[in-house]
Specification:
Length: 601
């Protein structure tokens, strides 16, 4: 019987979680002397590397002093809470990583709450103690206060704390005493994280993740709670509704290092992958062939936001992508549902449109960005929050918003949030910066980030997490400026852009192909304005002084996918293709827009 520890590492975005995992892998001697693994080894997805955040939970294992330590790297962003909820079911303890300067942040609270509810004991790591002006002792107190407010048990409140700098590769029990390795952390894991408790009984495993191999198909991943699993063992699959299906395990894999190793038998307490069981979903139980017993299924928080996904029907459709039909989009969304727990998809009365529900703009924008990179073309409507009726009262999702910014800019931020029906909860000074906490409807956050960054000269750090549904707060002012809309299809001409610059800010470059109905800029006034930027200069044989001055064109504003989704109005779409992100009116022709055709936005 091998000694095992299953730990999940949880932290707020940017507190150094993935860097710490890197150092643990190096300490576990997973790499040969000739291998150069680089940094952020676990963030192996392109988008994770570009955004600098963890999106997908991943497993890796190391051996230390004869003990196998299964490490689960979890996302720090609340939009990916579906990932967190399912993987915490595989852990026996958690490492809570906090920044020695910032302390626990909103997302830390969100993930910690989930861990404490599951009865997991935390090991606290205060990271980045080499930062100037950091306060490790105060942060330790803040973690205690956080856990107390989350109704932690006495055992959970009696948590051990390790201090150090993951980036510099050292950990210590005293933050003033720098060591030369992270061995104190690994020793603390063996001492304080319990080995898996194995109850008596026959085979039981909750499916907490799905992996797909193009060679053999779908595999169920989870922690074997009790009993044993053997190759070709008869099993029973019990779904969420309690329906039982007979099955057989054809191949079994356990995690070693980054890879999977095929084995003949899996012992209880280890994390494994099972191949051969058909038709399983996340939350189902794989149980013994005889006298099967189901485990409690995974409860997932509901989505708070929806967007309309539809086929690309702009004049430029099919020029850049491979997958453009509604069948392609439907099949891709169905495949995503299998592994993305917090996602919901509904068909609409139109075969070309789907309503997709998620946790937030970032959650859905990661899906759209992934589809773009795979060669899909699609259009997305304005994000809409989900309105519910609770006890006869119209209710909407409300979030906790935290803004960290310089003290002198706090008035601007408070004014902006209160205009969007936000209510201030606290104001905490930290050196020359201040941390503001608000309660704000989810509707108010959509589109606020770019305005906030502009108003604070890029200094504000915004984080938010879903809190609860509350009675509807009334109307919130939307975008103040109208759109500049292209009148004709063609190339944007520098001469025309130069002449129209006083009308607003453009989103397209000179020489870029545009089409009728495309949103090519933001009007300086509140109304929409149709402009023609494809008009060339009329050439005559007469010259006048000053007529040929050089055009000075202001660089266009370029949107990221998230910014575009937050920017659009209810009568606009974001057109996402593998190479472009364009904004457009749903009704492309001006005559149709003026006629006010009835359309489901």
């Amino acid at each position: 019987m091998k000694d095992i520890r299953n730990i999940a590492i949880i932290a707020h975005v940017d507190h150094g979680k993935t860097t710490l995992v890197d150092k643990m892998l190096l300490a576990g001697q997973l790499f040969g002397d000739h291998e150069r693994p680089g940094e952020l080894i676990m963030d192996n997805n392109d988008q994770e590397r570009e955004r600098g955040i963890t999106i997908l939970a991943k497993n890796v294992s190391i051996n230390y002093k004869g003990t196998k330590i299964n490490i689960i790297d979890t996302p720090g962003h609340a939009d990916f809470g579906g990932e967190v909820e399912r993987v915490l079911n595989m852990a026996d303890g958690v490492i809570l990583l906090v920044d020695a300067f910032e302390g626990p942040m909103p997302q830390t609270r969100f993930v910690m709450d989930k861990a404490l509810q599951l009865g997991l004991n935390p090991l606290v790591v205060v990271n980045k103690v080499d930062k100037p002006n950091c306060t490790p002792d105060e942060v330790h107190e803040m973690v205690f206060d956080l856990m107390f407010s989350l109704d932690a048990t006495e055992e959970q409140l009696d948590f051990p704390t390790i201090y150090g700098s993951a980036k510099n590769g050292w950990m210590s029990e005293d933050w003033k005493v720098e060591t030369d390795s992270i061995v104190p952390l690994l020793d603390a894991i063996l001492e304080h994280i319990p080995a898996p408790e194995i109850p008596e009984g026959n085979t039981q495993m909750l499916v907490t993740s799905i992996e797909f191999s193009k060679y053999i198909g779908r595999m169920a991943i989870g922690r074997l709670s009790r009993g044993t699993l053997k190759t070709n063992q008869p099993l029973t699959l019990i779904n969420r509704e309690g329906v039982e299906t007979k099955a057989r395990a054809r191949n079994l894999y356990v995690y070693e290092g980054f890879g999977r190793v095929e084995v003949d038998e899996v012992q209880a307490g280890d994390i494994c992958a099972v191949f051969g069981v058909e038709g399983f979903e996340i939350g189902d139980t794989i149980a013994a062939g005889e006298n099967p017993e189901a485990l409690p299924t995974i409860a997932i928080d509901e989505p708070t936001l929806s967007m309309t996904f539809t086929i690309n029907d702009s004049p430029f459709f099919g020029k850049e992508g491979k997958y453009v039909t509604s069948r392609h989009i439907k099949d891709r969304l169905t495949a995503e549902l299998e592994r993305n727990l917090a996602l919901r998809v509904e068909e609409t009365d139109s075969a070309d449109k789907f309503r997709v529900f998620g946790r937030g703009v970032m959650h859905l924008s990661v899906l759209i960005e992934t589809m773009r990179r795979e060669g899909y073309e699609l259009q997305i409507g304005q994000p809409q929050v989900i309105i519910k009726e609770i006890d006869g009262v119209k209710s909407e999702p409300v979030e906790e918003l935290t803004i960290d910014l310089p003290d002198e800019m706090s008035g601007t931020a408070i004014n902006m949030v209160t205009q969007r029906k936000g209510m201030m909860l606290s104001m905490l000074p930290k050196g020359d910066r201040v941390t503001l906490e608000f309660e704000i409807p989810s509707r108010g956050i959509i589109g606020m980030r770019s305005n906030m960054l502009t108003a604070t000269q890029g200094e504000a750090i915004m984080t938010h997490r879903f809190k609860e549904f509350q009675p509807h707060k009334g109307d919130i002012p939307g975008r103040m400026n109208g759109s500049l809309i292209s009148m004709e299809q063609g190339k944007a001409i520098p001469f025309s852009i130069n002449n129209l610059q006083d009308r607003g800010r453009f989103f397209v470059e000179a020489g870029e192909e545009i089409y009728e109905g495309q949103v090519i800029g933001e009007n300086s006034r509140a109304n929409d304005l149709v402009v023609n930027v494809t008009k060339t200069k009329k050439l005559t044989n007469m010259r006048s002084s000053g007529a040929d001055d050089k055009a000075r064109i202001v660089p266009p504003r370029k949107f990221t996918l998230e910014e575009a989704l937050e920017y659009i109005q209810g009568d606009e779409y974001v057109e996402a293709t593998p190479e472009s992100i364009r904004l457009r009116k749903i009704l492309l022709r001006e005559a149709e827009r003026k006629r006010g055709m009835k359309i489901n936005f």
